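Why should sequence recovery work at all? Because a backbone constrains its sequence more than one might expect. Tight turns favour small or flexible residues, buried strands favour hydrophobic ones, and helices have their own preferences. The token representation captures these environments compactly. In the example below, the structure is given first.
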């Protein structure tokens, strides 16, 4: 049920149980969460496990979800991208529409991997997710992710607060055209 997508350097595929230790290591690295402020400290193993498991149910319930990212050369899990429903405790009208997210191991930042992966993910989403729009939430200091969002047609919607921290939210119409 979970489609496999390929790019030049990556395979977007279903999570595997053996991915968990790498997934947890990425979230335990303080560089992963530093741009969201003090509320978002590195995640402990229990929270990582719950987030990992949540990914499996998204595909069954909604027909979309997270993909694990695999480096095609090494075969290693290096992050994740996808669309999901988080039911975030936020006062934004679009919180129940699909949310987009991307996560790359901090040691691999700056290589264009998130952009490459999200290009494939958006091509799939535009053809397969019926929602008129998607949204994403990005820390105000995370300029790299803001640039990725804008590249794929996201436009800043509003500042919001999530778990006591200021965040920026962005909206993207299906197809990325405003």
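From this structural description, the recovered sequence reads:
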């Amino acid at each position: 049920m979970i489609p496999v997508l390929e790019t030049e350097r990556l395979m977007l595929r279903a999570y595997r149980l053996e991915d968990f230790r790498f997934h947890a290591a990425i979230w335990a690295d303080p560089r992963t969460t530093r741009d969201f402020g003090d509320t978002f400290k590195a995640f402990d193993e229990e929270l990582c496990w719950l987030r990992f498991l949540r990914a499996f149910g998204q595909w069954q319930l909604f027909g979309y979800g997270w993909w694990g990212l695999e480096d095609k050369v090494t075969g290693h899990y290096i992050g994740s991208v996808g669309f999901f429903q988080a039911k975030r405790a936020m006062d934004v009208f679009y919180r129940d529409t699909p949310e987009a997210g991307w996560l790359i191991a901090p040691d691999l930042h700056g290589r264009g991997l998130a952009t490459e992966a999200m290009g494939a993910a958006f091509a799939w989403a535009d053809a397969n997710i019926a929602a008129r729009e998607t949204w994403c939430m990005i820390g105000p200091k995370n300029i790299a992710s803001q640039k990725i969002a804008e590249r794929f047609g996201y436009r800043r919607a509003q500042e919001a607060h999530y778990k006591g921290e200021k965040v920026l939210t962005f909206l993207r119409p299906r197809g990325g055209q405003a």
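A few observations help interpret the result. DSSP finds five helices and eight strands in the chain.
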